[in-house]
């Protein structure tokens, strides 16, 4: 499938690290993502919230001026991993192909224990990715390559 490439749109991105142990100072994965997206002249902000459904959902509703939300952490099998479950309750659609691509490109068995996915809510992109630095490198490559096209698709009439 061929898509025309127009001028690259600069998007407003919020990185939400979901963790009971990480802080702004110790959030290596979230900071690495922030730096990588900023290199492409995107507007990027970063916050940390607890593994708590209310905080996870509130991070979205409190920042509706953003185009892309990248939730880092809370995608695994642990009892505390509630990111995907929490966002699935508000999402309009789930694009399961993102998770399939992430797991395939990870070349790592443990990636298949991740519930990485992409949700759409009010034309906003909500990516859910694991919190390890290796996982965020893989996810950055994928997200960076598709988010502009997805933005155009979500806003075309």
Task: Report on this structure.
The structure is a single chain. The protein is α/β, with parallel strands linked by helices and 157 residues long. It has one domain: 3-Layer(aba) Sandwich (Molybdenum Cofactor Biosythetic Enzyme, Chain A). 39% of the residues lie in helices and 20% in strands. A 6-stranded mixed sheet has the order 2-1-3-6-5-4, sandwiched between helices. A hairpin with a 2-residue loop joins β5 (117-121) and β6 (124-129). The radius of gyration is 14 Å and the shape is globular. The two termini are 20 Å apart.
Brief summary:
With 157 residues, this protein is an alpha/beta fold. 39% of the residues lie in helices and 20% in strands.
Q: What structural keywords apply?
A:
20% strand; 157 residues; globular; alpha/beta; Molybdenum Cofactor Biosythetic Enzyme, Chain A; single chain
Question: Which secondary structure elements does this structure contain, and how are they paired or packed?
Answer:
Blueprint: E1 12-18, H1 28-39, E2 43-49, H2 53-61, E3 68-72, H3 83-88, E4 93-94, H4 96-106, E5 117-121, E6 124-129, H5 133-155
Parallel strand pairs: 1-2, 1-3, 3-6
Antiparallel strand pairs: 4-5, 5-6
Instruction: Tell me the series of helices and strands, N- to C-terminal.
Output: EHEHEHEHEEH
The tally of beta strands, per DSSP, is 6
Structural class, by secondary structure, is: alpha/beta
How large is the radius of gyration? 14 Å
Number of helices: 5
Instruction: Provide the CATH architecture.
Output: 3-Layer(aba) Sandwich
């Amino acid at each position: 499938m061929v898509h025309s490439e127009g001028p690259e749109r600069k998007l407003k991105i919020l990185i939400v690290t979901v963790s009971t142990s990480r802080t702004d100072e110790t959030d290596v994965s979230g900071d690495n993502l922030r730096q990588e997206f900023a290199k492409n002249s995107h507007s990027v902000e970063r916050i940390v919230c607890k593994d708590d459904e209310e905080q996870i959902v509130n991070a979205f509703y409190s920042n509706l001026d953003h185009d892309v939300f990248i939730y880092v952490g809370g995608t695994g099998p642990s009892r505390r991993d509630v990111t995907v479950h929490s966002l699935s309750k508000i999402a309009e659609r789930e694009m399961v192909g993102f998770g399939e691509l992430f797991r395939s490109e990870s070349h790592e068995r443990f990636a298949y224990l991740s519930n990485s996915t992409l949700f759409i809510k009010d034309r906003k992109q909500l990516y859910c990715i694991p919190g390890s630095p290796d996982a965020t490198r893989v996810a950055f490559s994928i997200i960076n390559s598709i988010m502009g096209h997805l933005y155009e698709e979500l806003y075309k009439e």
